[in-house]
Every structure is written in structure tokens, then in C-alpha cells.
# Entry
Amino acid sequence: MNLVLRELYANKKSLLIWGASMAAFVAMMFVEFAAYYKNPEMLAVIDAMPRELLAAFGMLDANLTTVSGYLSMSMVFINVALSVYAAMLGHNLVAKEERDKTAGFLMTLPITRASVLTGKLIAGLLCSAILLGIVAGSMLGMLLPYEAEANFLAFFTLLLITTFIIMVLFLSIGMFLGAALRRHKLSAGLGMGLVFALYIASIVSGLTARLEFLRYVSPFEYFEAAQLLRDLRMEPIFLLLSLVVVVGSVSGAYFYYSRRDLYV
Amino acid sequence: MNAIELKHLTKYYGKVRGIENLSFDVREGEIFGFIGPNGAGKTTTIRTLLGLVFPTSGSASIFGLDCIKHGTEIRKHVGYLPSEVFYYDQMKVIDLLKYSASFFKKDCTERIHELAEAMELSLERKIEDLSYGNKKKVGIVQGLLHGPKLLLLDEPTSGLDPLMQKRFFDIVAQENKQGVTVFFSSHILSEVQQLCHRVAVMKNGNVIRLESIDTLRQENYKKVALRSYGLTAETLGLSNVTNFHHENGTTRFFYKGSAQSLIQAVAKHDLTDVVIEDPSLEEIFMHYYEQGPA
Amino acid sequence: MTILVFELRRYMGSLMGWIASIVALLVMFMAFYPVLAQDAAMLDLFLEHYPEELLKAFGMGGELSLATVAGFFAFSFAFTQLVVGAQSAYYGFHFMSVEEREMTADFLYAKPVSRPQILLAKYGAAGSALLITNVGVWLGSFLAIDLFRGDATYELWPVVSLLLTVPVFQLFFFSLGFVVTAVSKKTVSVIGAAVGVSFVLYMLNALRRIVGGELLGLVSPYYHFDPNYILLTGAWHPLHTAISVSFIIVANFTAVRLYLRRDLRSAT
# Structure
């Protein structure tokens, strides 16, 4: 418990900076919405485009003139940013004891390594939730002046849930990399590279039918916002996939962390 | 000439005091000790001399050249050993030493091997795999390999085993015989006592005392231990006695005053044993420390 | 000089990785060109029916058709810029601050070298790494285009014009990383910050392309050196380029001044 509090305190500065940046980012995004709100001309253009192109930009069935539609279009950017945060957070939570040479202190206390990792995991989840909360708050704040559709609340909730799932996914992968690999410079770079590669994969997956399989590889495609809006539910296969990855990564993290030689 | 001259050197890190108004000289060819507790400002002084941090006010010069303006020139002739030694990832000892040597326009290979052998440092290992003490040895060789005229040593023996400490001191003493000035910060008083000609005592960013080692001892106390029955501070009949206490049947105290009065007072009692000696620098220093600035 | 060689060697390892990724990205994207060219041609037929302004507002009309080599290359080049941006930002964040993060400042700065000399050497090494990357981008681009263009032709000059923006693009991110480390007292998580910065600026522009307007693009070099604009017009946008260049100058000037008088952190 005290470990969780300690970690929260240690990460508060980074969380605040990210929170402020994301809030600013959200604000910038929704400032432009005013031009689209209930604008019928835009609608006509979207209807004419071929599906592949819309898919590549995640704009399938997205109606930019509605609140939900605009939101669905912008979600992919928010997801990527939050994933970068989560991956970095997960990795650093694990790596920092060796990086800052505090492992000699923490690991010689009467606690198991597993409990240390659990504390860090909880702290990671909390920080991610807080950041998501800040983002959600900013979004709602920016959208206040506009009239939302009937299903907005359901859609918004779904968005938050799925975004959180993606964050947890990257958090756990980050923790796994930090625990499993000896050199932290390498694992940090790998984590970042992974976020990046998966983002590109999500773009590419919509380009041609041959690459549709990438939908199962890139978390950014698991809960495609436009699809969520249309169906108002998550596809179970992707929920399962996420669960598998999270459980696998977290177990892997516990496994490697318990056996790791700590170089301090 | 003076190897080092400090004139009202002051360094504040924001509002936090580093060092304040330091003014003293270090003569060429002497071994100068710089003692004080943690946080006194010893490391700050050395880092300012090297130009790693910039003074808030005042100035410092080495061999007559201003430390900030002519830093590059000065550092050709200065060897520095930081208290904690860090080097680049994945480097082998010999690679680091060669890289270090490449900054000086002379061939240091022979000297590197000489020093490494004396300190029993294996050259082919990766630095990050070495123990703290062995890393320290790398620092020592790295600081000496270019034949500097001034050595700035920051807690040089922390981490070294006693044999290596002795080897290190032998090397330093040898260099000093050849005219190298040594400026050496420490809070291990026994090593300062062993090597230095003069000592400055730092506390809270100020120099509270600067003396030659001999003067420090002479001016100070004699440490007396007696075995006698029924001896108390009053029955002793001596003034300027401090720290009077009994320990395992032995009476101990510090005395500052004439040797004649001491002997006469002590002789009045029925003694079975007596030891009169100079206090160690540690004991002097601790005493100063408790009393505050002189 | 020794510092420069030493530093350059330390870049070499990862440099190959970066360049390989960039070239792979370029080639991989262009590999889709033959397939997509046909779909895109159909799209063009649709778009012909709609007025320019509408399409522009949608971020689509002002661009080159994806059916053309240039158009498709422009589309894929944005992702290359993403990687190049991250790499350059990483070098910028890293090249000076490494001595303080690794605590080796006490070693290097106690040597008989002045701070300007150290700065110059490190600049040289980082710059060389960036330059080599640049060459990789050029070669990779032409390789990718020639491998997959089939019979289609393209104008050479606009592509060259675009490739010429890469050094300035790199410098923008490099300077950003540099000035941030110069200003901060504490150490930053370098790789995270670099990727974050690159992504954020990328997304600002990506969003701008969808919703239109200038605001989102003003701070983003992805907008200043928008592949579409440059491939379409064959020229750089004067105002946008000026913004990037001014930033580069101001950032470097500030950072250098700060580093010359910086109190270096040590272990103790």
C-alpha cells in the first residue's frame, strides 16, 4: 500500500505534465469542430468516398458533423498518445529501481519481489486511469456547448472503456519489457518502437484487404471508434485478444522480475 | 608561486549555500588536506576549481591563471579524481584510459601500464562489471596518467582496500617528491594526518581553521590516561582539563596548558600507570566540531 | 577531434538500425502502390464531381491523387518523417545531456577541452549521424520509387525538393531536443520524450489535414514540410519554412548559451 502511494507520488509530476499536454491537445482538436457541427455540405462529400480510403484514416461511417462522429475520428490520435504514456510508464515503473540505483534499498526490505511488482502495477493502473480521466474531462468540457445525439453517453462510455483497455495493454507490455530485458536502454527503445510500429500497422491494415490480418496485431484497430459508434458494442474476439496479451505480459513480468539479477 | 589561490570564492546553488567567501592559498609542492563533514562544501570547491560549476562571486586561480577564463589550459596540468567514478557504457578499462590519454599531447601508454600494475587494475575488463573499489582504481589511473602538476582528489580512498590505500598513498607521496602539488579532500582524518602538510577544516561552506598539521597538534591538547585510585577532577588540581572521564579503571582527560604544570599535578597522586600523547587529528577535529568555529 | 570520433562511434550501432527501419518503411509503403493505384484511380473519378473548396475543407482536394507515384509517395513519406523526427529528437535530447545522465561529466569536462570545443565535437558527431541518415532517406526513397513505379512516370524535381527538406526537418527536432535539455535542470527520459514529441507534432498535423485550418499546423514541421504541398508545387512554402528555420536558430542559440554557463550535475 505504501509502495503504491510512493509510486503515485513519484509519478505525479510526469502525470501533471502529460495531463496538461493532453488537455491542450484535446482543446486544439475540438476547437475546429465548430466548423463541422451540423454542416450538411460535409456530409455529402464523405458519402462519396471509397471505403478503403476512409478505412485507412479510420473514417468509415464517421460523420464529422455530429459530436459522436467527430469524437470517433479523433480517438485514434488520443489513443496513440495515451499508449505512449502507458508504455513508458509501465517500463519505467519496473526499470527505475535499477536505473536510479534504489533497488539496493527496496529489494532488501521484507517484501517479496512479486508484491513490489503488484504495487507498481496498481500504481500504473491508477495513473493511467487518472490521465484518461483528465482527457475525458477535457473532451466533455470542450463538447459542452454542442448538442449530442441520443446514443452519445453509451458511445462515450464505450470509448473510455476501450481506450483504457488499450492503455492497460501497453502498460503491461512496457512492464514486461522492463522486467525481462537486461539492458534498459534497449527495452525502453523497444517499447517505443512497438507503439510506433503498431500505429503504422493500424494505418496500413486498412489499405488493402490482404493486410486485414493486421487488425488482430495492432491494438489501435481492436476497438475502432467508428465501428464502436455504429455497433455500440465491442467485438468479443478483440476483448479476448487484449485479455490474453495483458495476462501474458503481466505473468511474464512477474516471472522475469522474480528471477532477475539486480545490478545495483 | 601558489598552486591554487582562492579569493572570496562563493557558490550558491539557487538559494542553497555551497561555499561562502573562501580565501586561502595552496603552495606549490605541498600536500594540502581539506577536511569537513558531508555537505561542508569540499566537493563544490573542487568542482569550481575545475570549471564544472561557475562561482556566484569571487575568483579562483591555478598556477596564476583564472580557473574559468583559462580552464582549458589549466586542465592540461591537473589530474582530477571525483569521489564517485562513472564512465561510459560498455567500455573496457584500457579503452577509457586510452581515450583519456588522447586529450593530452603526449604518450601516456607507459605510465598507464605502470599505474595499472601498481594498483592491480586489470585493463581488459568492462568498467561496468567492476566493483566500486575497482572502478575507483580506474579513476586513480585516469587522474594520474598524464603526469599532472596538480592533483585534485575528492575522497580518493573511499572504496579501496587497505593495501590499495597504501599503494595509492605511496604513489601520491612519490609524485609529491617530484614536485606535484596535491589538494586532497577527505573526511577520513587518519589519512589526512598521514600525508598532509597543511589542513583546512570546512564546515557549512566556510573554512573554520587552516593550519599546518604540526601546529594543529601542538597548539592543542595532550591526551592523558592515568591509573590511580580515587582520582576525581577536583582532586587532580589542574585547570584547563576537559573530557574528564573514567573508563575501565583508567582515568582519561584532555589537557591544554604547560607540560610542567601537568607533570607536577599528576605526580602528586599515587599512579600505577600514565600515558601522555598527542591526540589524533580525529580527536582534535571532533573537539573543534563540537565547539563550533574557533 | 578525439571526442568527435569517440562520439561518432557510439552513434554507429543504433544508426544502422534507424536507417534500416527508414528504408524498410519507404520500400514497404511503395510496395502497395501498384495495388492501390487502381483503386485510387477510381476514387479520382468520383472526386471530379465535387467542387474544389469542399474537398479542400476535407483535406482531400488539394492533394495529389494517390493514383500517381508522387501522390502515393507523399502519403507514405509522412510516416518516414515520423521516424526521422523521432530519431532527430532523440539525438537532440541525448547528445549533450548524456554526460550528466550517465554522470560522466566529471570525466569529460575535467579534461583540457573548453566547453565550446566539446559542444562543437558533439554537434559534429550528431550532425554526421543525421547526415548519414539523410543519405539513407535519399537512397531509400529512390529505391522504393523505382522498384514499384512500374511504367508510371513522375517528375524528378518535386521529389528532390521534398528530400531537400529532410535536413531542415531533422534540425528542427534536433534543436527541440537540445533546447529542452539545456533548459531543464533535471534529467528527462530521453527516448520517451523523443518519440512523444515526434508523435504529438505528427498528430497535430494529421488532425489538421482532416479538419483544416492553420492553427494546428503552425507549430508542426510535418505541416511546414508537408509532402503533398511540396510534391504538388515543387517548392517550399516560404512562411512555413521560415517558422521552422527561425525556431532552429533561436533554439540553438539559446541552448548553446545555456550550456556554456551550465553548472554540471555530478554524482555527489
About this structure: The first helix of chain A runs from residue 2 to 31. The mean pLDDT of chain A is 84.
